[in-house]
C-alpha cells in the first residue's frame, strides 16, 4: 500500500504526509513524515472522526457517518476521508495545495483500494475474524 500513498503524495504538489488509520486510531500505513508523527496524527484522527460522526447525526436523514473533514489551518490543510469499513485516509498538506485536486485524488485512491483499507472491529484488543 505504501506505493499507492506515495503516488497520492507525488501527484498533488504541497502534500506533506499521508496516513491510513483504523477507526480506533492505529496507523496502518504512511508516506512522508516520521512514524511518531504518523502515530500522533492517527490517534488525533480517531477523535476527530468520532466528533464528525456526532455532528453528522444531527442532520435529518443522516446515519451519522463521516465522509470527509477538511480543516484549514495557518500553514496548511488537513483532510480526513472515510476509506472503507473502519478505515480512514488522512492527509496533511502545505498552504497552496490544490484543494480540489487533493479531494479528487483521495477519492480515487479510496475507490481503488477501499476494500483493502477496511479494518475489522477489535475485540479484546485483537482484530475480529
TrEMBL record:
A Pfam family annotated for this UniProt entry: Robl_LC7
Membrane-spanning parts: 76-97
InterPro entries: Mycobact_SerProt_Inhib_Rv3364c, Roadblock/LAMTOR2_dom
Gene3D superfamilies xref list: Dynein light chain 2a, cytoplasmic (3.30.450.30)
Domain Roadblock/LAMTOR2: residue ranges: 2-93
Keywords: Membrane, Transmembrane, Transmembrane helix
Name of the molecule in the record: Dynein regulation protein LC7
Top-level taxonomy: Bacteria, Bacillati, Actinomycetota, Actinomycetes, Kitasatosporales
Amino acid at each position: 500500500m505504501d506505493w499507492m500513498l506515495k503516488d497520492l503524495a507525488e501527484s498533488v504538489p504541497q502534500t506533506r504526509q499521508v496516513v491510513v488509520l483504523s477507526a480506533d486510531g492505529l496507523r496502518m500505513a504512511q508516506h512522508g513524515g516520521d512514524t511518531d508523527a504518523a502515530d500522533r496524527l492517527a490517534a488525533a484522527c480517531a477523535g476527530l472522526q468520532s466528533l464528525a460522526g456526532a455532528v453528522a447525526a444531527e442532520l435529518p436523514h443522516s446515519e451519522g457517518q463521516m465522509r470527509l473533514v477538511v480543516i484549514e489551518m495557518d500553514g496548511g490543510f488537513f483532510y480526513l476521508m472515510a476509506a472503507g469499513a473502519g478505515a480512514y485516509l488522512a492527509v496533511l498538506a502545505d498552504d497552496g495545495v490544490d484543494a480540489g485536486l487533493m479531494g479528487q485524488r483521495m477519492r480515487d485512491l479510496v475507490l481503488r483500494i477501499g476494500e483493502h483499507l477496511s479494518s475489522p472491529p477489535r475485540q479484546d484488543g485483537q482484530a475480529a475474524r
